[in-house]
Amino acid sequence: MSEVTPSNIISKEEIKQISIDLDSKVKITKSKTSLNKIKKNLKDFVQQQKKELESIEANVRANPNYLENENIKLPEKKNKVVLLHSGYFSPVHNGDIELLLVAKKFHEDELNAFVAGALLSPVHDQLVRTKLDKDVFIQSKHRIAMIEKVVEDSEWIDIDTWDAAQTRAQPLGTVANHLANTLKEKIPGHKSLKVCLVVSATNLIRSPLVGFDSKLVNLCVVGTADDKTAVAHIKDNYEKNQGVKISFAECESVIPSSEVACEHFKKGTLTSEVVSESVVKHVQFHLLGGYALKDEDL
Fold this sequence. Notes:
It is a single chain. The chain has a domain of about 180 residues: Rossmann fold, CATH 3.40.50.620. By secondary structure, the chain is of the alpha/beta class. It has a 6-stranded parallel sheet with strand order 3-2-1-4-5-6. It is built from 11 helices and 6 strands. It comes from Acrasis kona.
């Protein structure tokens, strides 16, 4: 074993420089609305409906009385939606994904809609600095990198970095309207495709939402049965004054909040029960939050 001497002991300054070098390798925030998954899902949906119609037509040609069978179901015309969930994601946590899963199931089961995909939209650093304590602030480039890891294997969830890449924080209505207009521009063959902003009942009650284009954006509020009364009052006000259609997706239990993830991040105690393994690895590797090196560690 080699002798430990002052010359081969890494210094505090060197460790700090390593941390800076690692941080510099994380890509800076650029505006990107990832639509590939949405486009693929829409294409698959259209092709599936086409196949079902072709099968029915073939059966009718073979048997003119085929449609008299009450068990035959024609492909239904469905509203097509893209879910949007905006947040601090400091860091992104399991509750963020669960929120989208509840909203997706509600749209499919209760509204008979086709969910083409969902986008997580991290807010601008300016807003995170304003709203969160300094010790739980994570730069957008790290928040985005963690989201990208979390959704990379998902067939329907992706990321929209437009808000985070702007020169200043944007109102939520502006973010939702921008996505709706982007979908119209980039996926012109689906004019009925609509954006549905997904929020928790707690966030809706805390923070009024304004500035939505009711022709382009709907609102889906996710909460428990205990939230129904409060949400119903807000729903009436929104629909009357802003014309925004609001639906309530009920979940059986309270979805974990970002406060829990922030607290674990601050203490350096994140686990897979709170966030994905990739998030834990990212904050550890980049020495963020409670994982940052302290003088007593050096």
